[in-house]
Write a structure and sequence with these properties.
The protein has 330 residues and is an alpha+beta fold. The protein is built from five helices and 20 strands.
């Protein structure tokens, strides 16, 4: 054989070798996976985790598939909401939507969303399951799909695939730590997929300190938007009532044309006596926003916790605001 042909054959052998490998390692997810049983890779080349298998029912082969996706944005609740919206908007092509918050994936608790998708004018029914889990700094999404005709065998095959996943917890991206002031005591915990903005400032005997600012993305009917949360503190010798009486006219400052204003100088929030203010307003050249502010006193300091979100009652916004409010620990 000529040398050129020998070299070409060697190259072909080198390229085809990965197709024989049954184990893949995913450094980003800190995961290794070895193909079990009937499973094959969806693609012979690559470093992703996407598998397939063919199962027979009444002499007909049906392909089942599994795929792992990961990203450092998004939260489990946002994904559940997106899937529920997809099913509702799909009309008669979707049914049997259910959420199981006590499922297991990779040896840890996860949320499983399942539903049935109808195709070919309702003649074909496929079962789909999505396992959602925040692991370290990542949102993991494991998707399974099989025709109903092979549901029993598919269940066993998928169970084997999930059991074959080996996570290395030490290799996962780290979660941003909470911000805590033990002498107050006070803490702010970053919700899933949110980001800290700016540096943490410490309280001082003079001046106003921006102790924490965080931002979370939210999807609305008008597109992507943000929810911003901030905690500030300053030394203050007066009472909450004195603060309210002396600053009543400026408690809704920062936005134009404030509407729906609610002021409560004697509210209770998280078991704490607070001055509570809520209103809607519009920044110059922007869209309407909703603002929630709470002032409370501890250890001689006056603190303000503020949540700014898109205005409205869309489920995605409501969920994001709830996470923002729950982030403050008193």
């Amino acid at each position: 054989m000529p040398i050129v042909k020998l070299l070409l054959a060697a190259c072909l052998l080198a390229v085809s070798t990965p197709a024989q490998e049954k184990t893949r390692d995913l450094p980003r997810e800190g995961l290794s996976f070895t193909l079990p049983g009937v499973w094959k890779w969806q693609s012979d080349f690559g470093s992703n985790l996407a598998i397939k298998a063919t199962l027979e029912a009444k002499g007909i082969g049906h392909e089942i598939t599994g795929e792992l996706l990961s990203r450092d944005t998004g939260s489990v609740d946002d994904e559940i909401l997106a899937l529920e919206t997809k099913v509702k908007e799909g009309g008669p092509d979707f049914r049997d939507f259910a959420v199981d918050r006590n499922a297991m994936f990779g040896g840890q608790k996860a949320v499983m969303v399942r539903f049935t998708r109808l195709r070919n004018e309702g003649k074909e029914a496929s079962e789909e399951r999505v396992f959602l889990q925040r692991r370290g700094g990542l949102l993991l999404t494991w998707k399974e799909e099989n025709r109903k005709e092979v549901a029993g065998a598919a269940g066993s095959a998928f169970a084997a695939a999930r059991a074959a996943m080996r996570f290395r917890e030490s290799a996962l991206p780290k979660v941003d730590p909470l911000r805590q002031w033990k002498d107050i005591p006070l803490k702010v915990t970053l919700p899933e997929s949110w980001k800290w903005e700016g540096e943490r400032q410490e309280l001082s005997e003079s001046g106003n300190a921006t102790m924490a600012v965080m931002i979370g993305e939210v999807t609305t009917k008008k597109g992507a938007a943000a929810v911003q949360v901030s905690l500030t503190g300053q030394k203050y010798a007066g009472t909450l009532q004195q603060f309210f009486d002396g600053n009543r006219e400026t408690l809704t400052s920062g936005l134009e044309s404030a509407t729906g204003v609610s002021l409560d100088p004697k509210a209770t929030w998280k078991g704490e006596k607070v001055v509570a203010v809520t209103f809607d307003g519009t920044p110059k050249g922007g869209s309407k926003l909703s603002v929630r502010r709470w002032w409370f006193k501890r250890k001689g300091y006056l603190f303000q916790y503020q949540v700014v979100s898109p205005s409205g009652t869309e489920p995605s916004v409501v969920q994001a605001v709830k996470r923002a409010e729950a982030a403050l620990g008193l």
